[in-house]
Design brief:
Layout lengths: L1 H16 L11 E5 L4 E6 L12 E7 L3 E8 L2 E2 L12 E3 L8 E6 L8 E9 L1 E12 L6 E8 L2 E10 L4 E6 L9 E7 L5 E10 L4 E9 L4 E9 L5 H39 L1 H4 L3 H13 L6 H12 L1
Parallel strand pairs: 1-9
Antiparallel strand pairs: 2-7, 3-4, 3-8, 4-5, 6-7, 8-9, 10-11, 11-14, 12-15, 13-14, 15-16
The structure holds 2-acetamido-2-deoxy-beta-D-glucopyranose (NAG) (3 copies).
């Protein structure tokens, strides 16, 4: 705990004495999603080759109590003073120091990482900048459930995790608001996230749909799911099996018509081949008429044939 304090006092006085050395923060606000990585950047002047032994870099978080995030004191890293919040998740991308960049990488960002960070640099002179880190957690995956609770009565459930608290809005097929009939509970889940569960009990006929919308006011973000009231308790399974049956019907119809068409064409071909011989015989002509009648809808060839027959007569 002693070294960073010494560093801070050192930097503080240098800041007063040496106004020429300035640290810059190209981006003063970072917004990152919970669980992702973030790299925050500060720049400082380096003239020529970096003298590592003369460089001190520090990142700290301004909470009620100051938390040490990273310390490099005159070229030497010091992890002993690092606050437990950041253990194992912090890396300074040292190769970039040569180019006058202090890049701090935080991996697997937690909600509690949100706040203000100060990056201090001492190199000849000393200076610091403050950077704001915002962490968001959208309600991305919605788990849904449909349970029959009686005659035409259903209990619909939607559950998701995120931050901050989301309002849950329910709508029917016509987008009418049903939220006042729903019950929404908020629990604290993993890493400060809210586990929001909303239940709507409603009378409905089969084959109706409902929407649940997680409305995250602070992020101005909506995530929604569709719930399908189906014949069995497991709506998803039912619609999938229905689609499967539908596919079989289409395939059967397709192959059936192909078969029929082939048969008709064959019949017509056979008739055409025998046409010259049967032209004289009126009985054969009769049978041919019967054939063309059977396949009229499917074969173009037979229309031509019929036309020729009329010409002939
Ligand atoms: C975050 O950084 C760690 C370590 O560098 C890496 O293994 C991981 O794949 C990164 N995750 C994402 C989401 O980029
Ligand atoms: C919501 O839940 C509470 C407690 O489980 C219950 O007393 C209340 O009647 C429910 N409200 C609605 C609208 O279902
Ligand atoms: C989210 O949905 C609510 C309710 O339908 C609506 O009032 C709001 O404007 C929507 N917000 C966005 C950003 O789409």
């Amino acid at each position: 705990m002693e070294k960073p304090l010494v560093l801070f006092i050192f930097l503080f006085y240098w800041h007063l004495l040496n106004a020429l050395f300035t640290v810059e923060a190209p981006q003063s606000l970072y917004t990152v999603e919970h669980g992702k990585n973030v790299t925050m950047e500060c720049t400082f002047p380096v003239n020529g080759k970096l003298k590592f032994r003369e460089l001190s870099v520090s990142w700290e978080k301004k909470d009620e109590l100051k938390k040490q995030v990273y310390v490099l004191l005159r070229g030497e890293e010091d992890f002993k003073s690092q606050h437990s919040d950041f253990k194992g998740r912090i890396k300074l991308l040292k190769e970039n120091l040569n180019f006058g960049k202090s890049l701090l990488q935080i991996t697997d960002v937690k909600l509690r990482d949100a706040g203000f960070y100060r990056c201090l640099i001492g190199y000849g002179g000393a200076d610091y900048k403050t950077i704001n880190l915002k962490v968001k957690a959208p309600y991305r995956r919605i788990t849904k459930g449909v349970v029959s609770t009686g005659e035409n009565e259903w209990k619909l459930t939607c559950q998701s995790e995120g931050y901050p608290e989301a309002e849950v809005i329910w709508q029917n097929r016509e987008y009418e608001d049903l939220s006042d009939k729903a019950n929404t509970t908020y629990e604290t889940g993993s890493d400060q996230l809210y586990r929001v569960t909303s239940t709507l009990t409603i009378k409905s006929r089969i084959d109706e749909i409902f929407y649940c919308i997680f409305w995250n006011k602070e992020l101005q973000e909506n995530t929604s799911a569709i719930l399908h009231i189906a014949d069995s308790a497991d709506g998803v399974l039912w619609t999938e099996s229905r689609r499967f049956v539908g596919e079989i019907l289409i395939m059967t119809a397709f192959f059936g018509s192909v078969l029929l068409f082939t048969l008709c064409v064959r019949k017509v071909r056979a008739n055409k081949d025998s046409r010259t011989t049967v032209a004289i015989s009126s009985t054969a002509k009769l049978s041919k008429d019967k054939d063309t009648h059977d396949c009229r809808a499917t074969s173009f060839e037979d229309k031509e044939l019929k036309y020729m027959q009329i010409e002939e007569t």
